[in-house]
Design goal:
The protein is of the alpha/beta class. It has two domains: 1-33; 35-235, Glycoside hydrolase/deacetylase (TIM Barrel), CATH 3.20.20. The chain contains nine helices and eight strands. Strands 2, 3, 4, 7 and 8 form a five-stranded parallel sheet that branches. A three-stranded parallel sheet has the order 1-6-5. β2 (46-54), α2 (59-69) and β3 (74-78) form a beta-alpha-beta unit. α5 crosses α6. The longest helix is centred in the first third of the chain and has 32 residues, at 2-33. The protein starts with a helix and ends in a 10-residue tail after the last helix.
Length: 245
Amino acid sequence: MIKKVVVVFVCICISFLFSIKGFAKDRFDYEQTGKAIWDIPTTKPLIALTFDDGPHPIYTKKIMDLLDRYDAKATFFVTGSQVEKLPEVIQQLANNGHEIGNHTYHHFYSHTMSKQILRAEIKETEKKIVEITGVYPHLFRPVGGYYDDMIIETAAEENYQVVMWSWHQDSKDWANPGVGHIIRNVLPKAQSGDIILFHDAGGKRTQTVQALEVIIPALLNEGYELVTVSDLIKMTNHWTLFKQL
């Protein structure tokens, strides 16, 4: 009986290792095609802060004020439904030099979602952003960070670069784990070329704002420049690796 249990356990472990390998291979395959990125390999002291699910009438403005105080730039992956409610916030983000990315219209994804529905989600959000800012977004972040061939290819067909985040840089602020926890999730692991995940909406984001009050000046004091994702790509000479955005 014990032998059988051991054999089953070993099989599970092997299966798990192969699944990790397959997931990692997917990532690197996508990066080589230039259709998706997680971070940028560079020694230049550059980091991109990104914010999902906004805009929010309170938290997006607080985060924007904090960024502007330190002359830092960031990329905001917005949902079309929120953009429609808060066009003035989107306009202010654009006016202040921050980047607007596409995060679908309804912030919804299902494994059964068709390509047609995903395309409609992307295009409707794009339309709202262009109506307000006059600028076409070219970065797309899939909901929940879930990606597959259909999502990557659909985004590419619509002239979008898929942007994920560094595997070691999920702040986990979405769980409201505490200000200190968010800070510890980010600062000790920070390195050049990181794309860091935060949220400015989708729940109460007081902890995110308070954590950023520590994280932003700390990163700057360590010599990092906080830039948009597009500038991270351009400033590290990776522009030619990826398709022209």
